[in-house]
Amino acid sequence: MTTTNKKAVFFDRDGTLNVDIAYLHRLEDFVWIEGAKEAIKYVNDKGYLAILVTNQSGVARGFYPEEDIQAVYDWMNAELAKIGAHLDALFYCPHHPQGKILQYTKACNCRKPATGMVDEACCHFHINRVKSFLVGDSDNDMECARRAGLTGIYYDGGNLLTRIKEYL
Ligand SMILES: [Mg+2]
Ligand SMILES: [Zn+2]
Question: What percent of the chain has pLDDT over 90?
C-alpha cells in the first residue's frame, strides 16, 4: 500500500455540519445539523480522513478573529469525542476581496470554489482524490469539488448521515 491510497471526506462547515446563522463564531450559537456527528463517525470508521474546509470571510470583514475559527473547531472535536468521532484537520480561508481588515483583503486561491485548501490537504496527507469526496451545501462547494477532482456530495437538508451513505 502506498501513502497515496489515503482517502478523505472533506466537509464544509456552515450549513453542512452546523445550522448556518451567517458568521457563526460563538460556541453558544453552534447547532449541529441532524446526523452530522454520526456522519463524521461513519467516515472515521470507514477509514476516511475527515477534513474541514471552510470559508470564513468574517475574519476579513472584521466580525471575529482567526482564533475563533480554531476555538469552534476544537469545541467540535470535543463534542465528537463523546461519540468516538473526530475531525482530522482544519483548513479555513479568512480572506475576502472586499474585506475590512487589510491583511485578509485579497483575492486568494483558498476561498472556495478555489481549491487551495483541498490542494494543501491532499499534499499534506497524500490523499487520493479519485477516492475522496467533498460534502457541502452550496454551489461553491460543488464547483470546488469539480475543480479539485473530488466527488461532490450536495447536502440540501435532512439527515447528513443518510446522505453520506448514498455515496460511501
Ligand atoms: Mg456552507
Ligand atoms: Zn483565502
Answer: 97
How far apart are alpha carbons 150 and 102 in whole angstroms? Answer: 33
Ordered structural domains, the chain, with CATH: 3-164 (3.40.50.1000)
| Backbone dihedral angles phi then psi of residue 37, each to the nearest 5 degrees | -60, -40
Looking at residue 61, the DSSP 8-state letter turns out to be T
Q: How far is the CA of 73 from the centre of ligand 2 (A)?
A: 18
CB 24 within 8 A of CB 14: yes
For the stretch 26-62, pLDDT in tens is 999 999 999 999 999 999 999 999 999 999 999 999 9
Listed residues: CB within 5 A of ion ligand 1: 12, 14-15, 137-138
Q: Cα torsion at 118, 97, 64, 143 (round to 10°)?
A: -30
